[in-house]
Amino acid sequence: MSARVFDVAVVGGGLHGLSAALHLCRAGKRVVVLEKSWVGRHASGATAAGVRTLNRDVGELDLALESMEMWHRISALVGDDCGFHPNGQICVADRPEHLAKLEQRVSSLSAAGYQHEQIIDAQELRRLVPAINPQCLGASISRIDGAADPHRTLAAFRRSAELAGAVIRQGCGVTGIERRGQDWALALQGPAVEVDGESIVVPFIVNAAGAWAGRIAGMVGDEIPLGTKASMMIVTERLAPLVKPVVSIMGRSLSFKQSDQGTLVIGGGLQGIADLDAESSSVRMGVLSKGARAATDVFPSVRNVRMVRVWSGLEAKTADLLPVVCPAVNAPGVFHAFGYSGHGFELVPVVGATLTDLITQGRTRRPIAALDARRLMAAV
Ligand SMILES: Cc1cc2nc3c(=O)[nH]c(=O)nc-3n(C[C@H](O)[C@H](O)[C@H](O)COP(=O)(O)OP(=O)(O)OC[C@H]3O[C@@H](n4cnc5c(N)ncnc54)[C@H](O)[C@@H]3O)c2cc1C
């Protein structure tokens, strides 16, 4: 059994676990990250890495806006720009009723004091995205948004967390958690666990276990109903520069962008098949073809472009599609951060800081009331 050498065990070596570890170490905590596979194995390695406030639920909007400010100075946090380009995100409308919905949203945001979303007309849309289908009528835009490079982001958060003192143990799955006095003992299993029955004893736990976070929550007495997402992506061959902002379309599943390397990265939440026990997901080509169709409808010039790879990635989904970021309900010293429902990449910098507030000060000024697990537990 390990002595108590760490203050915090972070369960999960995805971006949220790494961000929590980084912020906690900089606040003086001794942190171990326990990852059953390897860093970035699941959602954080499969992500499209869109950095979006556009069309965010108001329940997480203030947090997302603070995170966006952090993205705009991400080098100061992790010593690398993570390939982040704030070229904007655009949601186009190709029907009058869809444009009316976008206009309604932007005016109600504006009435509530939010100015980051605006409406642009067809002419401005074509100026910003010349390759767009001329039948598109207009769009909403958030000019502060953009996209990053997921693998640079993972490498930067990992490097910074380790430089700050975090110990990352890959191949170490948490299989049980029990109360031991004022502390928690986490039982470990996996290829990198050398001592049979090894456990880690800590006063604080961060549950950043992604698609499996409901199981970790259950180990400490929080039964939180969660669904699973297996979002699919397509990447194409490299093309000459075609589009700078990330483009989606109202009423259909599409997110369309071009990477620095020239490949088109096409997603938007179409779902493959998830298997939590096998820790894998698979692509449904029939469903994915709808994403390809939406892409060619919005960008007719890409009709003959070759797809070179498709994939899917696993993460947890909540009933209201808002994440869970809060102290555990039934377990003092345990903190949840999961259920990002397909849009957690943007929140990575700020959620780690929020968890650090909760652990080091017992409270946070950041707006997380709408992200409390009790809203989901009450609905059971
Ligand atoms: C295809 C796809 C596209 C996406 N596109 C976007 C986008 O454009 N913009 C955006 O904002 N978001 C996007 N997302 C969502 C975003 O990527 C995720 O919200 C984010 O990466 C979640 O990070 P995480 O650290 O919480 O989870 P993960 O990266 O999944 O990390 C959780 C880790 O916990 C580990 N773990 C689980 N159980 C245990 C255990 N018992 N013991 C030890 N370790 C354990 C897992 O192995 C895993 O590595 C996308 C997601 C996918 C799948």
List the helices and strands and how they pair.
Layout: E1 8-11, H1 15-26, E2 31-35, H2 43-46, E3 50-51, H3 58-72, H4 74-78, E4 89-93, H5 96-111, E5 117-121, H6 122-128, E6 138-142, E7 146-147, H7 150-163, E8 167-170, E9 173-180, E10 183-189, E11 199-202, E12 204-207, H8 213-219, E13 227-238, E14 246-249, E15 255-258, E16 263-267, E17 273-275, E18 280-282, H9 285-298, E19 307-317, E20 324-327, E21 334-338, H10 348-361, H11 374-377
Parallel strand pairs: 1-2, 1-12, 2-8, 4-14, 12-21
Antiparallel strand pairs: 3-7, 4-6, 5-6, 9-10, 10-11, 13-16, 13-19, 14-15, 15-16, 17-18, 20-21
Helix pairs in contact: 1-7, 1-10, 3-10
The chain binds flavin-adenine dinucleotide.
Task: Summarize the entry for a quick read.
Helices cover 29% and strands 28% of the residues. The chain has eleven helices and 21 strands. The chain has an eight-stranded mixed beta sheet, with helices on both faces.
Offer a few descriptive terms:
28% strand, binds flavin-adenine dinucleotide, globular, alpha+beta, 6-stranded mixed beta sheet, D-Amino Acid Oxidase, Chain A, domain 2, 380 residues, 8-stranded mixed beta sheet, 2 domains, FAD/NAD(P)-binding domain
Number of helices: 11
Sketch the major β-sheet.
8 strands, mixed
Unreliable segments (pLDDT under 50, ≥5 consecutive)? Answer: none
Strands of the largest sheet, in order across it? 5-6-4-14-15-16-13-19
Measured by DSSP, the beta-strand proportion falls in 25-35%
User: What is the count of β-strands?
Assistant: 21
| CATH topology tier name of the largest domain | FAD/NAD(P)-binding domain
* Computed CA radius of gyration, to the nearest angstrom: 21 Å
Structural class by helix and strand composition? alpha+beta
Q: What is the class of the largest domain in the CATH system?
A: Alpha Beta
Pfam families: DAO (PF01266)
Keywords: Oxidoreductase
Domain FAD dependent oxidoreductase: 7-358
Protein name: FAD-binding oxidoreductase
